[in-house]
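Researcher: Please generate the 3D structure of the following complex. Treat every line as part of one assembly.
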Amino acid sequence: MIAGLGLLLGVVLGLLLQPQVPPWMQPYLPIAVVAALDAVFGALRAFLDGIFDDKVFVVSFVSNVLIAALIVYLGDKLGVGGQLSTGVIVVLGIRIFSNVAAIRRHLFHA
Amino acid sequence: MTEDRPTVPEPEEPRPSGRARLLAALRRPWSRGQVTAAVLLAVVGFAGVVQVRANEGNDRYVGMRQGDLIQLLNSLSTASQRAENEIAKLQQTRNTLRNDTDSRRAALERARQQANTLGILAGTLPAEGPGVRVSITDPNGKVGTDLMLNGIEELRDAGAEVIEINDTVRVIAQTSFKDGLRGIIVDGHQLSPPYTIDAIGNPHTLAQAMAFTGGFIDEIESPAIGGKVVVTQTQSVEIASVRQPAQADYARPTNSE
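Model: Done. Output below.
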């Protein structure tokens, strides 16, 4: 309930404020968003499994975002930024898919 | 992922299903975990929307890598070079067409001038200009073809460009003179005295040509004829009579450039 309202609040704030993404953040933000989505779906799955822990959620959220940003940064420095970003997106996408599959089994028993 | 499909929840193990847990969470909003999740979800929503907007914005090249940008720049410069070549080619075409139009216009102008000149010569166009008006009175009816021809030849000799008799007959190359019963017949027109000859040319020269000793005026005014001639120099002689252009039935222009 509150979680859904929080998501809604964030979206509305983003639409209303329309902030400019600072240039140094521009390469990292998309990857960070995908990583955060992965953490959110993981948390929802854990909640449905009955093993949700808010501390674990916060830590996994922050570490996901930071590691994703770090990988992009490292890739840029090594000259393989594009490929590494793609790799990170693929891995996170696979994880999101498996998490969503688990959530689906919980909610719809299918 | 363990396949924990809770078809029938066992009463001795009160482990609620995922759906029940979700419903319980909806009913009981203010747990610590939910608030944490709300904060983090707000962050995700905010960042996601910001990123989407930035992605939709006009700066589609922001965040691209150096290699991609260089490639993009190269393709752009190639495209602009191609466009410049195209521009040069089109400009050349335009210049060619413009020259063509200019020369065509010049030719048209020349043809029109020539048509005007020839029209005045052939008598198909009305004309005006400085010249003389020669009025001839002939109370005795003695002025005939030869005298008239003399006078016209004098005018032509003095450079008359357009000649008209009695405001009705335009004198051109094919004009014929014949003696009639009363007066003369010019190109089939019966003309009777007094005669008027209008001529366009240098007024002074034309008047001189009429007036020299033993010339046209002297002949007309001699006692044998008994006529009278008045030559009026004027800056504006208007000659309105025209001729239909004659079709040459026999003569053909030879192609001798």
